Structures are given as C-alpha cells and as structure tokens.
C-alpha cells in the first residue's frame, strides 16, 4: 500500500499534553486525513522547533496544530516561522494556574502573526478546523465534513424529539 504524506502536523510541548491532543488525531483519522504527531518544545528544544516550522511546508504539510500549556509559546513561535496556518490548542497542564495562562499565551498574538486559537483543551475542534482548511481544496474531505455536520444535526433533533416525548411538550418547526 502506498504511504501518503501527512497533510497535518500535530505538535505538542510535552508528552503530558497527549491526553488532550489525542482528540485532534482521532478526528483527523475519522476524516481520513493523514497526519504526523510529535513532541516539539519551544523552551526545551528551541532548535528542533525552528527546524520543524522551517521545513514543514516543503515537507508537504498544509496545516499545523500546536498544543501547549502554561507559558505556551509553541504555537506562536511556529507561526512566526512558517506561512502555513497554525491552529493553537491551549492545554490546561500541570504547570498551568487555571488554564487562562495557556489561553492568553496562545491567543494574544501580535498583528502580523495570527494563531487560530481554539478553546481550552479543545483539540477536537482544532482537528475539525484543520480538516476544514484541507476541505477547501479537497472534495472528499469537504464531503466528509458535510456528513459530519448532518450527523450532529440528527443527533440534536433526536434528543429534542426524546425530550418532547418525555415531557409531552416541545417546539415543532
Ligand atoms: C508545556 O509545559 C508543555 O506543553 C506542557 O503543557 C507543560 C508541562 O510539561 P511537562 O512538565 O509535563 O513536560 O511546555
């Protein structure tokens, strides 16, 4: 079987981020999008970070998902080096006070260097956003995303239906 090149790079500051970041990998698998996953630390392996970000585009990656906690500089620093879109996942890590440190470190980027920041620990949404970026030029991924939205809609409508029956009450459209 031919090996496909990964389109999405998932990087995290530490293996302790994996319990959160795993959700990005899981949803990309669901959408049949090839990805790679590794540890790159802005503070502990700065040269590896520069190398990873510097070579990401020429290696064929189209999006980078970067997760980190506490003084979370990884997504912003990667975004400062590459022209690829970078999605930042703030992780509520062991060194995070309450999660706000991670959120603000990733969110409050200076003009000119954007990071698409998702909610605290929201690696699943990072994966979906990466799929949506790939889906702008990949018809099969776009179809999978449309089907995913349909499924979510049906799930909510089924729940509303159940509530209506349980409470003999509700709203019809
Ligand atoms: C950050 O420090 C990492 O992204 C992780 O969220 C946090 C704690 O790392 P460990 O001390 O668990 O390796 O750089």
Helix and strand arrangement:
Blueprint: E1 8-12, H1 18-30, E2 35-39, H2 46-55, E3 63-69, H3 74-81, E4 86-91, H4 100-107, E5 116-117, H5 123-135, H6 139-167
Parallel strand pairs: 1-2, 1-3, 3-4, 4-5
Helix pairs in contact: 1-5, 2-3, 5-6
The structure holds 5-O-phosphono-beta-D-ribofuranose.
Please give the CATH architecture: 3-Layer(aba) Sandwich
Q: Unreliable stretches, pLDDT < 50, 5 or more residues?
A: none
How are helices and strands ordered from N to C? Answer: EHEHEHEHEHH
Query: How much of the sequence is in beta strands?
Result: 5-15%
Most strands sheet:
5 strands, parallel
- The averaged pLDDT comes out at 96
Reported by name, the CATH topology is Rossmann fold
Radius of gyration: 18 Å
Main-sheet strand order equals 2-1-3-4-5
Bound molecules: 5-O-phosphono-beta-D-ribofuranose
What does this structure look like?
The chain starts with 7 loop residues before the first strand and ends in a 6-residue tail after the last helix. α5 packs across α6 (139-167). Strands 2-1-3-4-5 form a five-stranded parallel beta sheet, sandwiched between helices. The chain has one domain (3-138): Rossmann fold (3-Layer(aba) Sandwich), CATH 3.40.50. The longest helix has 29 residues, at 139-167. It has helices at residues 18-30, 46-55, 74-81, 100-107, 123-135, 139-167, and strands at residues 8-12, 35-39, 63-69, 86-91, 116-117. 47% of the residues lie in helices and 14% in strands. By secondary structure, the chain is an alpha/beta fold. It has six helices and five strands. The protein binds 5-O-phosphono-beta-D-ribofuranose.
């Amino acid at each position: 079987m031919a090996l496909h090149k990964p389109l999405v790079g998932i990087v995290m500051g530490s293996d302790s981020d994996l319990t959160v970041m795993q959700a990005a990998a899981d949803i990309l698998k669901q959408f049949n999008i090839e990805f790679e996953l590794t540890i790159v630390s802005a503070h502990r392996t700065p040269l590896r970070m520069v190398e990873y970000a510097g070579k990401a585009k020429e290696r064929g990656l189209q999006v980078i998902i970067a997760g980190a906690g506490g003084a979370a500089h990884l997504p912003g620093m990667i975004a400062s080096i590459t022209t690829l879109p970078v999605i930042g996942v703030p992780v509520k890590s062991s060194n995070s006070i309450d999660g706000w440190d991670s959120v603000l470190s990733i969110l409050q980027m200076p003009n000119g260097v954007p990071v698409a920041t998702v909610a605290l620990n929201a690696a699943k949404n990072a994966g979906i956003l990466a799929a949506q970026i790939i889906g702008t030029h990949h018809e099969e991924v776009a179809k999978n995303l449309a089907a995913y939205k349909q499924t979510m809609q049906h799930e909510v409508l089924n729940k509303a239906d159940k509530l209506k029956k349980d409470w003999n009450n509700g709203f019809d459209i």
